[in-house]
Amino acid sequence: DTAVSQTPKYLVTQMGNDKSIKCEQNLGHDTMYWYKQDSKKFLKIMFSYNNKELIINETVPNRFSPKSPDKAHLNLHINSLELGDSAVYFCASSQDLSGGTPFFGPGTRLTVL
Amino acid sequence: AQTVTQSQPEMSVQEAETVTLSCTYDTSESDYYLFWYKQPPSRQMILVIRQEAYKQQNATENRFSVNFQKAAKSFSLKISDSQLGDAAMYFCAYRSALAQGGSEKLVFGKGMKLTVNP
Prior knowledge:
heterodimer; A: mainly beta; B: 12 strands
């Protein structure tokens, strides 16, 4: 009964490939996010969705495309992977746009070779 | 834009002792939330404690408590009776209470690595 789940947990791929990370939450939350944690452990917002609507796109290259088929799912597709995309990507969800505590998924460690 | 500062990159504590992790933030808003998250080697981001800015009372969760000083924009975390399982990265984070596009994101500090010595 995991609250926020992500697949896969590890992803190793070659430069130039396209890959996707999937996220699902069973908390009934309206808002979902993608955060990126770089090699220095710094966490930064990439995207947020509220009820399937894109709210935040934090100057992320357009090679990254989030998609929310319904409010329980938020997937991240990355085209033409680059070495600098290597990081840990966290999905999170919160009840709504204000006040809810964000809960995080287990993270996906992406390594681009 | 809001910023969160954790000035100590690393700290260590003896098992069973008390340690305090510092965090300061900058905002022009009056209503917001502050969080401490723990990230053990497993990588999972775990909520430790949450504080609402409108509440004067400091939040506590078992061995974890905060010292929230709104005027000073300070939000420190105290861990009492430290345990080996407390060893982790600790992140302080800010979230606006405004329900408007873009404000709901968490703004994180750079994190602090806590080592617990047996």
